[in-house]
Amino acid sequence: MRKFSILLLILLTACASLLPQPAATRISPALTIRTHPDGALYVGDLVSFEAYNPVAAQPLSNSLRISLAGKTLAEQPFNQFGMGARSQATFYWAWDTHALQPGDYILTFTLLPSGVHWDQKISLLPAAQLPAAQAGAHWASVETACCTLHYITGTDAEKDLDALKRMLDAQAADVARRMGTQYKGKVPVTYLPRTLGHGGFTSDGIYVSYLHQNYAGGTAQQVTHHELVHWLDGQLGGNLRPSMLQEGLAVYMSDGHFKVEPIVPRAAALIDLNLYIPLRKLADTFYFSQHEASYAEAAALISYIISTYGQDGFNTFYRDIRPAKSGSQADALDAALQAHFGMNLDTFEAKFSAFLRQQPADAAARTDMRLTVAFYDTVRRYQREMDPSAYFLYTWLPDVATMRQRGIVADFLRHPDGLLNSQIENLLVSGDAALRAADYNGVESKINTVNLLLDLRSRFGG
Ligand SMILES: [Zn+2]
Predict the structure, then answer these.
(1) Ligand 1 centroid to 96 CA: how many Å?
(2) Last residue of a domain, one of 130, 160, 177
(3) What is the whole-number distance in angstroms between the Cα of residue 209 and the centre of ligand 1?
(4) pLDDT digit string (tens) for 307-355?
(5) Residue 98's domain is classified under what CATH number?
């Protein structure tokens, strides 16, 4: 990056408090209220609310009521929300603003049963000010050989629809071949026009971020392949499929995590980089361990099992893992390893780590692994601090079938779009491109600049 651009960015950061910020208000030290869609609200929006304590997992109260002019809009209990399980009262599309005039509205929030309450002003902009691209956007679907593909009109998915359909069918065929099974019916696949988490989820369907400016990197092709492995893995079933093995299988079967990359050399590099996670710990805290190290190690573990026992041997073992009484996935794994391979988890790990240590040193894999970790740690830091709806532990991913049914698109079309957001996202997009091109100096400089900007923003407020 040229020097004047960095100076400009630092100046912008110092002015961060003047820029549009994510729609969150700290009411008291104990409660944060976030509204959705992100950013400014317009007449016609169906407004959702998240109310949570950012520093505690305990319920703040039994429930929270939101009212307007003495009339209750909704009341919701505090429950665990997201993968991070924070205590939160969640109000999906609780405030219908279609019939309202633009202007300021005073909403009252009341904790129950205590009755503690406070007011908060929320402003609605005229519907006419909604960006034109969003005003006419709606859900659409198209059938492909493998899948029902859902998208929102006017987005990059629609612009690239023909190529996207071909890509999806090609990935689906490859996954079916590699997993040795066929799809039972069409797979529901939704391409979202917003970066969310690391770009892909599988639950009642497959959800993949598809936008040209996807700051979380990862090609749609690679992520689609990964999620389709999860889909067929779920279809093949089992008793308990530990998270570590599910994710390892998806990376292994996709020849890499965010890109095609050498599985075993990258995991071997983790030992050198002091990022190797003992298997017992990894099995029990998979999604809370360092993300990229976890996935790389889990993929190498699958590679090791399949190369030692064959794919049939792996499947017989994997699909027969049963929950342990303790609830620990490591204990479940330990029992299944003994039953199928005649060794406990400690013995198995000794063999696996010896296998990794025997790998020849691979300087490129080591550098790539180190910078992949640094890049995605930076992406997640940006999400936590400036795009919290996208942060993977608390992603804002409402029920998409309901959204389609009710014609709701704004939750996915809007995201924080301040100047600093755009600048950082541009840096991340070019950092990802540099990482893919093995331009390691390039990606390192982008990572450093983003972290500097985030440091300055937190120092100067915003
Ligand atoms: Zn996955």
Answers:
(1) 35
(2) 130
(3) 14
(4) 999 999 999 999 999 999 999 999 999 999 999 999 999 999 999 999 9
(5) 2.60.40
